[in-house]
């Protein structure tokens, strides 16, 4: 189980890093109306910050996974794993950095009060009244409801659980507005209100973010030789492994939700773009083509992949599917283009070897002929 967690952590980190390094494709975003501030660029920045947040979490998780792997590798080879001091920091977590994190929690509480005091915050203060508003499909669309009263109760530990750090609260606040924009049409009042409050919230968060990152660096730099007083190394590592697995699942979900949000904000694809996309699919390798068709099947359960030829009607696909395919095809063709020169060099080298071999054979034959 532990090696699999390590692979998952590496995969999450790689996916987050790939998203972070890739320029945000604003040409795919909806074109702003005249007189509006460029919402595509604002949203692109917000998405990029989320990716960087996920990448940061993935880096921390990767280190935790490596710690677990080293411990169990040590036990496997008879060394009994790392000494108690190696895992003591997890048992004694919350020592010198508790004060700094508490101060960040207090400052973040001030940000929440600023947002909730806004005139448009009313719909987000309490859980959505699904029954009263007769929102029969709400829980089918929104898998993790969130509101400010739930966040406040968790910050105060009233429901038996508490936030471990400021980034967890940040993610839940974002979730409130993401849910509202996901469920309500972009022209709906609640969607517009959520979008504006999210922008205000992100502005406040950017001012606090340097302090958060500084505190996180201090935590990472803490010495690992703090002795454990009441927890065995095995118990501490087992708890760390479970907590890490839960965090990996959460990051995977956040990454998938983020991808869906980005794709949903894309504009409608033109007929010419669909034609070029179809042509691009024809140039994919068999493996990449299979992956592309799997994407279509994920968004369209009625689509069947059978036989050697597949009839893919571009006009029958959703905008989400089309843009996912476009991004995938573009990356796949770029990989193929980069690999092509290497193959050409190999072929040229092979031809030279064959020519040299033939030349040597002919030379030997000439020498053997009677003079």
UniProtKB/TrEMBL annotation:
Gene Ontology molecular function: any one: histone binding
GO biological process, one term: chromatin remodeling
All copies of domain NET, residue ranges: 259-340
Alphabetically ordered keywords of this record: Bromodomain, Transcription, Transcription regulation
SUPFAM superfamilies: Bromodomain (SSF47370)
Designated gene of the protein: LOC100827335
Domain Bromo: 116-191
Protein name: Bromo domain-containing protein
Composition bias type Basic and acidic residues, residue spans: 336-348
Organism encoding this protein: Brachypodium distachyon
Region (Disordered): 1-22, 336-371
């Amino acid at each position: 189980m532990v090696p699999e967690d390590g692979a998952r952590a590496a995969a999450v980190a790689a996916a987050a890093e790939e998203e972070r390094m890739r320029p945000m494709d604003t040409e795919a975003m909806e074109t702003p109306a005249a007189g509006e501030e460029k919402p595509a660029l604002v949203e692109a920045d917000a998405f990029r910050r989320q990716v960087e947040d996920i990448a940061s979490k993935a880096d921390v998780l990767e280190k935790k996974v490596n710690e677990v792997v080293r411990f169990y590798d040590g036990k496997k080879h008879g060394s009994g794993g790392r000494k108690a001091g190696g895992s003591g920091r997890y048992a004694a977590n919350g020592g010198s950095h508790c004060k700094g994190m508490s101060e960040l929690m207090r400052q973040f509480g001030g940000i929440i009060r600023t947002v909730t005091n806004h005139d448009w915050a009313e719909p987000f203060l309490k859980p959505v009244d699904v029954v009263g508003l007769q929102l029969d499909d709400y829980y089918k669309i929104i898998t993790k409801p969130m509101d400010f009263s739930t966040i406040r109760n968790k910050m105060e530990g009233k429901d038996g659980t508490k936030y471990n750090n400021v980034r967890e609260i940040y993610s839940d606040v974002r979730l409130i507005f993401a849910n509202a924009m996901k469920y309500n049409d972009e022209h709906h009042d609640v969607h517009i209100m959520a979008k504006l409050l999210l922008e205000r919230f992100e502005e406040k968060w950017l001012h606090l973010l340097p302090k958060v990152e500084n505190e996180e660096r201090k935590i990472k730099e803490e010495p690992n030789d703090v002795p454990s007083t009441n927890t065995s190394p095995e118990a501490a590592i087992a708890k760390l492994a479970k907590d890490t697995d839960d965090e990996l699942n959460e990051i995977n979900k956040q990454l998938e939700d983020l991808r869906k949000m980005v794709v949903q904000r894309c504009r409608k694809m033109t007929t010419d773009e669909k034609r070029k996309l179809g042509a691009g699919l024809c140039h994919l390798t068999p493996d990449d083509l299979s992956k592309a068709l799997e994407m279509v099947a994920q968004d369209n359960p009625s689509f069947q992949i059978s036989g050697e030829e597949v009839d893919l009607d571009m006009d029958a696909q959703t905008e989400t599917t089309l843009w996912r395919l476009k991004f995938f095809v573009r990356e796949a063709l770029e990989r193929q283009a980069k690999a092509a020169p290497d193959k050409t060099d190999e072929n040229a080298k092979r031809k030279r070897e064959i020519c040299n071999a033939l030349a040597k054979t002919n030379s030997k034959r000439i020498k053997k002929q009677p003079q």
